[in-house]
Amino acid sequence: MTAHASHPELTKNQALVFGSLSDAGGPLTAYAILDLLRENGFRAPLQVYRALDKLVEYGMVHRLESLNAFVACSHKGCSGHGTAAFAICEKCGDVREFTPDEAISLLRNWTESRGFQLSRTTIELRGTCKNCSVAN
Ligand SMILES: [Zn+2]
Ligand SMILES: [Zn+2]
Question: Of the candidates 124, 55, 121, 123, which has an alpha carbon nearest to the alpha carbon of residue 83?
Fold first, then answer.
């Protein structure tokens, strides 16, 4: 499990949820996490959602709205700028996280000029990854 020194000590449940997402290496729904953690005493989706809420808040996990799933952050810097971008392949389900530096500064210009208090941005790009395009 990746240790994030800047983050608060995780509870047992938070650590288990983060561990299952890290091991998966890709997005999981809350119900898939629940199934993985039944042996560890998880019984209700609410236990998973509570842990996920905190992990998202800490910047260690991102929520992917379009997949209704969660993914462990693969960048150290995400909690700093609060912006993550994902390229999601609709054929093989591959999900790549990247940091869209130029988009971040454009969005920051807009939010600052409007006085909008931005808490978090997640950009989801849907399409076909290179491997799947080549296979066609
Ligand atoms: Zn991230
Ligand atoms: Zn693909």
Answer: 121
Question: How long is the chain?
Answer: 136
Q: What is the CA radius of gyration of the chain?
A: 16
Give me the pLDDT at residue 4, please: 47
- Token pair recorded at residue 63: 């929520």
Confidence check: pLDDT of 1 > 80: no
- Global pTM exceeds 0.85: no
Give the pLDDT confidence of 71-84 residue by residue, as tens digits. Answer: 999 876 666 667 88
CA of 132 to the centre of ligand 1 (A): 24
Residue 134 Cα to ligand 2 middle (Å): 9
The helix (H) or strand (E) run that includes residue 133 is: helix 130-135
Q: How far is the CA of 62 from the centre of ligand 2 (A)?
A: 20
How far is Cα 117 from Cα 111, in angstroms, rounded to an integer?
Answer: 7
How many whole angstroms separate alpha carbon 85 and alpha carbon 22? Answer: 18
Helices of type H across 6-44:
12-24, 30-37
